[in-house]
Amino acid sequence: MSSAPGPSLSQRAVSARAAPYLDELNPAQRAAVEALDGPVLMLAGAGTGKTKALTTRIAHLLNTGRARPNEILAVTFTNKAAREMKARIGRLLGEAVEGMPWLGTFHAICVKLLRRHAELAGLKSNFTILDTDDQIRLMKQLIQAENIDEKRWPARQLAGIIDHWKNRAWTPDKVPAAEAGAFNNRGTELYALYQARLKELNAVDFGDLLLHMVTIFQTHDDVLEQYRRWFRYILVDEYQDTNVAQYLWLRLLAGGHHNICCVGDDDQSIYGWRGAEVGNILRFEKDFPGAQVIRLEQNYRSTPHILAAASGVISANRDRLGKTLWTEADEGEKVRLIGHWDGEEEARWIGEEIESMQRGTRGMRPFSLDEIAILVRASHQMRAFEDRFLTIGLPYRVIGGPRFYERMEIRDAMAYFRLAVSPADDLAFERVVNTPKRGLGDKAQQKIQVAARAAGVSLVEGAKRLLADRGLSGKGAAELAKLLDGIDRWGRMAGEPEISHVELAEIILDESGYTAMWQNDKSPEAPGRLENLKELVKALEEFENLTGFLEHVSLIMDNEAEGEGEKVSVMTLHAAKGLEFPAVFLPGWEDGLFPSQRAMDESGLKGLEEERRLAYVGITRAGELATISFAGNRRVYGQWQSQLPSRFIDELPEEHVEVLTPPGLYGGGYGAAAPRGIEVAASRADVYNSPGWKRMQARAGERPVSQPRESRHSVIDLEAVAAYAVGERVFHQKFGYGAVTAIEGDKLEVEFEKAGSKKVVARFVTAADDIPF
DNA sequence: GGGCACGCGCGTATT
DNA sequence: GCGCGTGCCC
Question: Is it the case that residue A4 has pLDDT exceeding 60?
Fold first, then answer.
């Protein structure tokens, strides 16, 4: 396989330097690192040191002189993963190696490649990358232009369909006939129109980055050949998450030497719904004959009980490559299982449990809040926890949520920057032409569109002509003239070296009236948005100019900045993949919620198996303590529903599970915990009839566990309380502005302007005048 | 053109 | 139960 040596092999030292890093590896990891040539599948179970093996392998490739840093293609899915890998390789080799230019996400690498070969895709090399928002706006226009009823056939849906096709590497002419019925039989046609429009705009969407490169490789042997030679070794992280387009791209590039090492875990494939094909990893040995399959099975994260519980659940899946995780760790605590009356009770119990864990209970060590995570199936489950934690003053952070660069105010501001840099950016112009309100509504905007189209020019240019022809009047005309004037001026300023781009950004936000818009906004979000704009300007400082910044942002959507202080993490199971916490709570294990009814309805057994892998991911995040819970009743879209324990609970091996006495059902009695307006008897009967519940009761009988009910909040933060007086105006991160109506211990009762009356812990609010705007 | 009221739909999420 | 989007009215 490693036939043709590169030109500089002699210099690259056949005699490898000492490789002390190899001694740090276990036998399987070492095998995966040393099997440098030919196809390798590294099946790395949860917590088995996958990143360590992967980065050491790269270090070894460099150290043995097999490849220079720029001859290694290493692909990840997220920027975070790419960053981590870079940092670890740097540490391994002691900064001796300059950055690896081809270590990055699929998308980042494809952008680089596509800029070099843009003309082969009918683009100019300075093409712009549209995000989801731009994409949908473009499709909306197409749908309108085609006189399609937007209500019955929303742009979102079309975007989803086209995205799905692109994930499968289908260009409009390759969409199979079986899919022709999509979008009222017009899917393929609209797809072709959309692609044509993108070309006109010299733009691509995320899916195109892969799709264009696959097409180029398939149709230009010389280009493909060049990169096959160049990328001597290929490494792929999270291979189970690859979609068809990514798979084809990899197979094309690895087609010559087959030096491809894919790392992944079929049991952690949880992105089928967005195009990932578990089949890619299951088929690896067929795709790459002679592949070595190396299993990383020694787990360094979790106790045997946790591993056994996870493995019990996942063993119910059929299509698996199969792994058996083992550990040298002490037995530890069993996975704990507890049922609650309803979702609020579940949140209350977890809140109290966390507080006692901080102090250390039941013979366990004390946990710091940073060591605790709550992993939910769906983000709406987070609300119960947020509400509860705010009430008891338990610090928490929500991971995920809208990313910084996806926030409205950031996208607006960036649209202004884009216009300054390239006034022909029609999508940017559309976004901000009437933000802030300039009296340029649909009608005025239509006139601009018509004028631009008639002259075959950009919207900015069209707007100028429209004004020159007196096609607009009144306030709108004056405001538009001001905006156009501004765009011209900012563009000129961008070219002046004496004005820094940071200053320019401030000037743009100021002169456009955008900052003022939020300053005059009385809603509770406004201060936060202004804060975000400040952060945006600060982020600019790290770049040479606006153009460089915009390019960076189009590919990177990071959400790093996190407040100081110990906090419980709350996130979805999906967001938790790749993370680990000593203690993990897994609430909401109820059939229909988890496994999700929708997943099962839409994808049947396949869907259920993916949900089960999600359960596996959840349990294996825990190092020392995993607590699974479910509620008998839950409010779903405002309606109370009785819930059955998840079928996954029945799959937990009994000997590794400890059933805790459910306080709401054993100690407190039903009546006390029953929410108003539901049929207590009916829901109780349902819960009682489920196998999971019966077994739980049986086990609880064997080994009753008493719940220590300790009083909480013994320490009152008097200083925080003393800072407020009744009637005072305060600001709360979640609830916005309000006035203090009562003070009680360390809590304040506040009548919020939007959120109504709430009891909140004093240190969670600030005096309203302290807000920086 | 902006503000309000009504109706619908509601998952997980990266680039 | 809530938020978003549309449509109607001023």
Answer: no
CATH annotation of A405-520:
1.10.486.10
Res A353: pLDDT? 95
A618 to each of A155, A493, A572, A579, how far by Cα in Å? 34, 52, 9, 10
Q: Nearest residue (Cα to C1') for B9?
A: A637
Determine the distance between A414 (CA) and C10 (C1') in angstroms: 35
Active-site positions of A read 50-51, 237-238, 268, 621
Residue located via tokens 């059955």: A644
Q: How far is the CA of A153 from the C1' of B4 (A)?
A: 26
Confirm whether A19-114+214-298 and A335-395+565-659 share one CATH topology.
yes
Strand C, nucleotides covered by protein (CB < 7 Å)? 1-2, 6-7
Say which nucleotide is closest to residue A105, CA to C1' distance. Answer: B15
Nearest residue to A220 via CA among A125, A288, A121? A121
- Residue A50, marked binder: yes
Is A80 flagged in the annotation as binding? no
Give strand letter and number of the nucleotide nearest A156 (CA to C1').
C5
Return chain A residues 112..151 having CB < 7 Å to nucleic acid strand C: 150-151
d(CA A669, CA A31): 58
Contact yes or no for A596/A378 (Cβ under 8 A):
yes
Q: Which amino acid is at A170?
A: W
pTM over the 0.85 mark: no
pLDDT tens string A359-411: 988 788 999 999 999 999 999 999 899 889 988 889 998 888 777 777 788 88
Phi, psi of A120 (to 5 degrees): -70, -15
Task: Give the separation between CA A433 and CA A516, rounded to whole angstroms.
Answer: 16
Residue nearest to nucleotide C1 (CA to C1'): A638
- Note the CA–C1' distance, A526 to C1, in angstroms: 24
Class of domain A128-201: mainly alpha
- Rounded, the Å distance between the CA of A621 and C1' of C3 is 33
What is the secondary structure of A468-511 as a DSSP string? HTT-S-HHHHHHHHHHHHHHHHHHHHHH-TTS-HHHHHHHHHHH
Say what the pLDDT of residue A703 is: 30
CATH for A335-395+565-659, among 1.25.40.10, 3.30.1540.20, 2.40.50.140, 3.40.50.300?
3.40.50.300
Name the nucleotide nearest A474; use CA and C1': B1
* Tokens encoding A153: 């056939």
Cα–Cα distance measured from residue A245 to residue A632, given in angstroms and rounded to the nearest whole number: 43
Residue A720's identity, in one-letter code, is A
Sign of the CA dihedral running A4, A10, A12, A16: positive
Is A239 in contact with A40 (CB distance < 8 Å)?
no
Strands of the A747-752 sheet, one edge to the other: A756-761, A747-752, A736-744, A729-732, A765-767
A306 or A90: which leads in pLDDT = A306
Task: Give distance CA A638 / C1' B6 (Å).
Answer: 18
Which residue type does A443 have? K
Read off the amino acid at residue A279: G
CA A228 to CA A251: how far, in whole Å?
10
Q: Buried b / exposed e across A651-666, counting CB within 10 Å, b at 16+?
A: bbeeebbbbbbbbbbe
- Protein footprint on strand B: which nucleotides are under 7 Å from a CB? 1-2, 9-15
